[in-house]
Amino acid sequence: MDVRETPPLTGKAATQESILQAAIKLFLEAGYEKTTMSQVAEAAGVGRATVFWHFSDKKSLFREAFNRLIDPFRRSLERDLDELPPRKRLDEQIATYRDFVSAQQQSIEAVIRWAMDKHDLRTTVINTLLDLHQRVAGALIQTISEIVPDDVAPEPIAVGLLTLLDGNVILALVDPSRGRATVREDSVAAYLAMIPVREGVDR
Prior knowledge:
By secondary structure, the protein is mainly α. The protein folds into 2 domains: 7-56, Arc Repressor Mutant, subunit A (Orthogonal Bundle); 66-193. The chain is built from 9 helices and no strands. The longest helix is centred in the middle third of the chain and has 24 residues, at 122-145. It is elongated and about 65 Å long.
C-alpha cells in the first residue's frame, strides 16, 4: 500500500491552523465568553491583527473551532456499513459512538457546556448537536428496521437506545468511576438483548 504523508502546512495555511488550534484550546479551557482574540493571538504567537485577518471576528473563529471539534463525529457517521448484516451493523454503530466518546471526552464536555452557557452562538451549538443527534437516530432506525419483525416499530427502539447512550455520556462526566461505567455498559447490552428479532436475522 502506498501511504503518503500529508505535507506540512506552510505560509497562510500554517498561520491559520496555528490560530485555530490556539483558539480550540482556549475555548475548551475557558469557554466562549472568557476567551478573547488577544489571548488567541498570544497563544498562537501572532499579532491580533493577523487573527482578525484570518477570522473576521470571534464568532467566526468559534464557528470554525466548533466545526473542527465535531468533524471527527461527522466523519464517523459517513462510514459505509451497509454491507454488514443488520445486527453486526448495529454493533458497529454503537462501537463507533463509544469510540468517539472515549477519544473526544474533553471536547464533548466542552460542547455540552457551550450548549448550556449563555452566549451569542448557543443556538448554533444546540442546532448542530440536534442535527447530529437526528442523523445518528436515522441510521439506528434504518438498521433496527431490518432487525425487528414487521409489526414492531423501529423508531421508539432506536430513540430509546440513543437516549440510553446519550445518558451514559452525561453520567460519565459526573460519575466517571469504572464500576458505574461497567454497569452502564451492561445496561446497553441488556437493552439490546430485549430487542425483538425477526425470523432469519442472526442474534
